[in-house]
Design a protein that fits this description.
Blueprint (H helix, E strand, L loop, with lengths): L2 E3 L3 H25 L1 H7 L2 H25 L2 H11 L4 H7 L11 H29 L8 H25 L6 H6 L2 E3 H7 L1 H14 L4
Antiparallel strand pairs: 1-2
Amino acid sequence: MARIQRFTVTERALHWMHASAFFALLVTGMILYLPALSTLVSRRHLVKNVHLWVAVAWAVALVVILVVGNRKRLAEDWREIETIDRDDRRWLRGRKAPQGRFNAGQKINALLTIAFALLFALSGFFLWLGERDHRFIFAGTGTVHDALTFASIGLLVGHLYLALIHPSTRHALRGMTVGNVDEAWAKKHHAKWVEAEQSGSTRDRPSP
């Protein structure tokens, strides 16, 4: 069966680093947020420290991947993700439209994930700073952090359903684990990307 490369090592490392940090932050955050879990664990100070240091480790790992990874490929990803074209708008309206390496739904998910990560970092920083200096306690910071958590859970549930359960999309997980996907599947779901890849390969071939 023919395969086509979809994601590089850098892209996969960035995805799984972010996913691992998110799950660790979600678990520790819910323990801190829910009284029943907080009582059950009964190590609130330890959990709070784990939550903080996972956030710091996430930020450091992000910088490391951006510095030593394939920055050219990440820049290409960003240019594609931030571009919502006519086909994407048709796809979002439920009409058939050819998609690139990222479909319109994946672009929206990526943009929301980036926005949420930035807002999590900012609100979390001020929560941490406010505990140490009351001048930096701002009304609503905790509410923003909590609201982001529940919104992120909603995104996560949808993402896991499409990646693990939905028959037509779960094959995409292969691209984020081993890097490649079936070419036939890619042609069906990401026709514009496959066409661009194949035309690029043709141009790169030396003349006979």
